[in-house]
Please model this.
Amino acid sequence: MTESGLIIVDKPAEWTSHDVVARMRRLAGTRRVGHAGTLDPMATGVLVVGVEKATRLLGHLALTEKVYTATMRLGVTTNTDDAEGEVTATASAAAVDPAEIHKGVAALTGDIMQVPPQVSAIKVDGKRAYKLARAGEEVALAARPITVHAFEVLDVRPHDDVIDVDAVITCSSGTYIRALARDLGAGLGVGGHLTRLRRTRVGPYDLSTARTLDELAAECVILPIGEAVAAAFPRRDVTAEEARTVRHGGPLPATGLGAGPIGVFGPDGELLALMEERGRSAKALAVFV
Model:
């Protein structure tokens, strides 16, 4: 039986997240494979893949903080907000001062409301926005609250009528980096889109532990589910009696470990469950034994 755990993939460009899952099903020898947090085909970098029981972690891991390196081009607008779309408008960015760019970046940092790209997987009346947009329909997407913890400009590179801005972004789940590029350009009055995106971290998992598909074909490295949970969530070790309660899906008294999932481990170090504290009790989100 295939070991339950996580595989940290360094996704190549031009592959969809689903393509990676299909490859990992073959490499891991099981169909029970999923991923946390979709990456667009253009993007590269950290894609967290779950195998067997670890697929039940993915929805919780998808909600963790993420870090990206990106290049945003000012002066050109596309219908997808990235380089894969069709150009819809151009405006010379030659007169844009770097100080204005830094001011625009500051306005997009912190707790903000963001309208997702028209070409996205957001559902509108039960249909994916990208399908409606590609059918020529105008899609009205509501702004959503996101948090951009840090938006650091690494370099500003003018050439001809465009400016390329290299940046590192640390953000909450649900943040569209291409929408940040669009909004930065719009705020400067010249338009903008994303030309390069690399995800360098998802929660505690970064490029230092990621493997390319070729490397995984040579050796499929699976992070055991217990280690994966201990790295990503607060840990609670319980007694043998409490472990019996958890195994049967019962609640435990809260210990004040805070909001969000908590990894619960038995006296022998075995992962038992993910639990969440609600008021005075901790209730199971997923039981693994």
Observations:
- The chain has three domains: 5-64+203-226, 66-202, 233-287.
- Residues 66-202 form a domain with the Pseudouridine synthase fold (CATH 3.30.2350.10).
- The longest strand covers residues 144-159.
- Residues 61 and 150 are 20 Å apart (CA to CA).
